[in-house]
Structures are given as C-alpha cells and as structure tokens.
Amino acid sequence: MKIFYLIWQYLVAFPVMIVSTLIASILVIILSPIFGSRVIGSVIPRAWGWFFCKLFLLPVKVEGRDNIDPKKEYIFVANHQSLLDIFLMEGYLGHNIKWMMKKELSRIPVFGYACKCAGFIYVDRHSRAAASSLSKADSVLREGSSLAVFAEGTRTLTGEVGPFKRGAFILAHDLNLPIVPVSISGCYDAFPKGRLWVRRTPLRLVVHAPVLPDASADSASDIARLRDVTREAVVRCASPK
After folding, report:
1. Is the CB of residue 238 less than 8 Å from the CB of residue 183?
2. How many domains, the chain?
3. Number of Cβ atoms within 10 Å of the Cβ of 216
4. Residue 212's domain spans which residues?
5. pTM of the prediction?
6. What strands lie across the sheet with 203-207, from one edge to the other?
7. Which of 131, 124, 122, 54 is nearest to 90 (CA)?
C-alpha cells in the first residue's frame, strides 16, 4: 500500500500540485487588482490548501472552530511542524487570514509576488524593516482581515514546540486584539523538514479559545503573559503525530 502511495505522489500529486500552485498564483495576481486582495487573497488560498490535503489523501480533523467568530479579527498563532501546516491552516481554519511570512519566500518566482498581491506580509527578520512589517500588519487588521503567524519563526526539527517570538504578541497588545492559539499535530510525522515524500498521517487542527490582551496592564508584562498563555495552549494539543 505504501509503494502505491509513493507512486501516486511522484506521478500525480506533486506534478498536479506544482501546476495548480502556479495557476492559483497567476489567478491571484490577475484578480486581486479587480476584486481586492481581501477577497481574492482569502478565497483562492483557501481552495488551494483544501485541494492539497485532498490530493495527498490526508485525513484532517478540526476541533474548536466554534471558538472564533468569522466576523471578528484575530491574530492566529500556531506551532510550525512542516510545510503542510500552511495548507492545513488555509484549507480548514475557515477564517479570512493574511500570513506574516519570512522575506526569503518573496524570491520564489510568481508565487512570491502572488503572496504580496494577496495581502500577505513579508517580515525581514534581520533588519530594522521589521517595524515596517508590523505597521503593515496593523493596516491589514484594520481592513478587516485576521493575521496568521508561526510564532516559532521556522519549522521544528524535532517535532517539539520551540520558543515563541514576541512580534505577534506586541501587535496584539498594541492593537488590543485577541490572540487565538492554534495547535497543529500530525504534520511533522507526515512531512518533516528535509524529507522528499509525504507519509499518509492524520492531521489535526485545534482552535483554542481567544486569549485577550489587557490594555491597562504594563506592556512588557502583558506581552509576556500573552506569549506564555498562548504557548501553553498550543503545546497542550500539539504532538508530532
């Protein structure tokens, strides 16, 4: 059975995914100026993420989606197990989200520009431009979209949840917006960093109750509290398998 799944991946799934990603990117680039990045940057990536999980025959279980209001803005903070996390979040979170992404991804031909057209935010982690990225995130949130962030900043190499960076929590405190912890599990076992094939493993997405900032509290202590509470919630349900 495993050999047939590998054959399916290399002969069908991966080629189809490359072509569909190119088509989705071109559609975003063409349609965003017409219909706006808020709509196109949500609808097409959502279909793309759902399609990927179906194409690779990955079972998906979603819990806690009733914890969020589709009409409200949040900052979604998730752990980062593998590249599959993006498809899982896009396809199954069920919310209009814009990603905060590392600037290096902007160099990918067509796809990088499509992400910019979709309203996603590139973060330069190695320069003072990070402050500018936070300003752009502020604008996105004020326009009615939510943000999605992998607070670890990079994929795990062990399956365990790493330390969370402060950026998302600074933004939540400054804008008085709720953080929604999101636990991802199964993606590490299915497609860890460095592996060239996908293992058919059940994926699980757990959406926790929002964590509210305290605008009246000292900023440093409130940011630390938001980070600690969020990470505790994420770790609780984020196992490699």
Report:
1. yes
2. 1
3. 6
4. 2-237
5. 0.92
6. 60-63, 203-207, 179-185, 75-78, 146-150, 97-102, 121-123
7. 54
